[in-house]
Design a protein that fits this description.
By secondary structure, this protein is of the alpha+beta class. The protein has 2 domains: about 140 residues, OB fold (Dihydrolipoamide Acetyltransferase, E2P) (Beta Barrel); about 220 residues, Chloramphenicol Acetyltransferase (2-Layer Sandwich), CATH 3.30.559. Helix content is about 25%, strand content about 25%. A hairpin with a 4-residue loop joins strand 4 and strand 5. Helix 2 packs parallel to helix 3, helix 6 crosses helix 7 and helix 6 crosses helix 8. The longest helix has 17 residues.
């Protein structure tokens, strides 16, 4: 009996996936558990296995196409069985309308699409090639035909290391430039060929990032509020905690303070679908993490009931998973508020775009030594700018300003965060208040 092969739904928020590569050809035997094809979402890549046995009768969705979840991608059955008419609806952008040339005027020849030309320049892999998702993406980015690679993995599977080895051999074999010929005085030179721009096809992750953030920026009325935070006391506390064996980052304290402040200002932890405002009962913090090819936003769930130590542990785990490519789709869905920290890159200030499905995002810049007025004098303190980008349909400017003011007070006082750090590690270390001799006066 003919059985359809459906595009899976990797996560609750996933609506479409890109079929990267077929690993079975039409007419090839299929057993339960065999990998049929590989897919990619905006979050991750994964393999799709067969649930039925027989022969791959038909491939309906070509490699490289993006389709909605639950789309029929092909059929498995007994050799010779008839398959239904194709029903797969490939998700492609609508073709732009070509301008009509005026009567009597010849239309100029169409310029070749740079992206399409680039796609055609990269050889398409054979359907019979067994290649890992990482190897497939790396080969595509380097323009290497995976069909020409001899795999060293199980059953001849091509791995990322195989692609890297081929790329290294090609680099060694490439002709080296000869010595430059000196120009004689008064000589003129011209370029033999004009320089042309390279067009690189956008990955599925890059396309989804572009689509989501463009939609957010063009449909959400953003406004931004910025405050400067004196981190003097917090940095002193952090160093003293570190000296006793408690290693917490500035980001950990910012995440914990943000979660507490969102409880105080539930409107900032809300969102709208355009018809109603949805108030979230819990705080699920998204943390923007940069990875090769884009960024992901893993979610620290129930951050409002976690201590700063718990947040540190969970954030470290999610960041490691993000950089190793092992995040599950559900680890990246359901955030109610996002924090984007570029402080490690010596950034004075920036504004972030609101993550779709949320009402606000916090942009964290660097701590910069800055002269400020303290009493009647001037002193240099580490000042950090926090910028809240908010959806004006949900949050008013006054609410955004009061939210940032409360967050600043939490970070500058640092007392609550200090107590959390002590409580979180009380079962591991013996604390003595004398070892945490923090000056209660403002830094």
């Amino acid at each position: 009996m003919v059985q359809p092969i459906l595009m899976p739904k990797p996560g609750q928020m996933t609506e479409e996936c890109t079929l990267i590569l077929w690993l079975k050809a039409e007419g090839e035997p299929v057993r339960k558990g065999d990998v049929l094809f590989e897919i990619e979402t905006d979050k991750s890549a994964m393999e799709v296995e067969a649930f039925d046995e027989g022969v791959l009768l038909k491939q309906l969705v070509p490699a490289g196409a993006t389709v909605a979840v639950n789309t029929v991608c092909g059929y498995v059955g007994v050799a010779g069985e008839a398959v239904p008419e194709p029903l797969a609806a490939v998700v492609e952008p609508a073709a732009p309308t070509e301008p009509v040339a005026p009567v009597g005027v010849s239309a100029p020849p169409a310029e070749p699409d740079a992206t399409q030309a680039c796609r055609q320049s990269v050889p398409a892999p054979s359907d019979r090639t067994r290649v890992s998702p990482r190897a497939s993406r790396l080969a595509a980015s380097l323009g290497i035909d995976v069909g020409s690679i001899e795999g060293t993995g199980p059953q001849g599977r091509i791995t990322e290391r195989d692609v890297q080895a081929v790329a290294a051999r090609q680099a060694v074999a490439a002709p080296q430039p000869g010595p430059a010929t000196p120009l004689t005085e008064g000589a003129h030179t011209t370029l033999a060929t004009p320089l042309t721009a390279d067009a690189e096809p956008m990955s599925a992750m890059r396309r989804v990032i572009a689509d989501r953030l463009t939609r957010s920026w063009t449909t959400t009325p953003h406004f931004a509020v910025t405050v400067s935070v004196n981190l003097g006391r917090l940095l002193t506390m952090r160093q003293e905690l570190k000296a006793t064996g408690v290693a917490l980052s500035v980001t950990d304290f910012i995440l914990a303070a943000t979660a507490q402040t969102l409880v105080e200002f539930p409107a900032v932890n809300a969102r709208t679908d355009g018809t109603a405002i949805v108030h979230h009962p819990r705080v699920h913090l998204g943390l923007a993490v940069s990875i090769p090819g884009g960024l992901v936003v893993p979610v620290i769930r129930d951050a409002d009931i976690l201590s700063v130590g718990d947040i540190h542990d969970r954030a470290a785990q999610l960041i490691d998973q993000a950089r190793s490519g092992s995040l599950a789709v559900d680890d990246m869905t359901g955030s109610t508020f996002t924090v984007s920290n570029l402080g490690m890159f010596e950034v004075d200030e920036f504004k972030a775009i609101i993550n779709p499905g949320e009402g606000a995002i916090l942009a964290v810049a660097s701590a910069v030594p800055t002269p400020i007025a303290i009493g009647d004098g001037i002193a240099v303190r580490p000042m950090m700018k926090l910028t809240l980008s908010a959806d004006h349909r949900v949050i008013d400017g006054e609410v955004g300003a009061r939210f940032l003011g409360s967050l600043r007070r939490r970070l500058e006082a640092a007392d609550s965060l200090r107590n959390q750090a002590l409580t979180a590690y009380a079962g591991q270390l013996i604390w003595q208040e004398a070892n945490l001799d923090i000056d209660p006066r403002p830094a």
